[in-house]
Design goal:
9% strand; 92 residues; 5 helices; mainly alpha
């Protein structure tokens, strides 16, 4: 699924007006805070030592968020720098 393209400069309220909890993007309802939640979870994953039992749960959560990130278009303009994160997401 490709991310949504909007013409010109876009402000946060253009995507998600005050009081809205979701935005319809690329055919998906994306909840506010999704990108921030993804970044925080990715940082938590990176902070874990390899083989930590919590790794599987964090990886699953990141993969659950992936369709919404794709709907927003995040991975079209940003690539994960971490080899560990790329492996979890199955992206190069």
């Amino acid at each position: 699924m490709e991310g949504v393209v909007m013409a010109g400069a876009v402000d946060p309220e253009d995507v998600l007006p005050d009081g809205a909890e979701y935005a319809e993007l690329g055919g998906a309802q994306v909840r506010k805070g999704t990108v921030a939640a993804f970044v925080a979870t990715a940082r938590s994953l990176e902070a874990l030592p390899a083989g930590d039992p919590a790794e599987a749960g964090l990886a699953a959560h990141l993969r659950d968020l992936l369709p919404d990130l794709r709907a927003v278009g995040v991975l079209e303009v940003f690539a994960p720098r971490s080899a560990r994160l790329r492996a979890v997401l199955g992206v190069s």
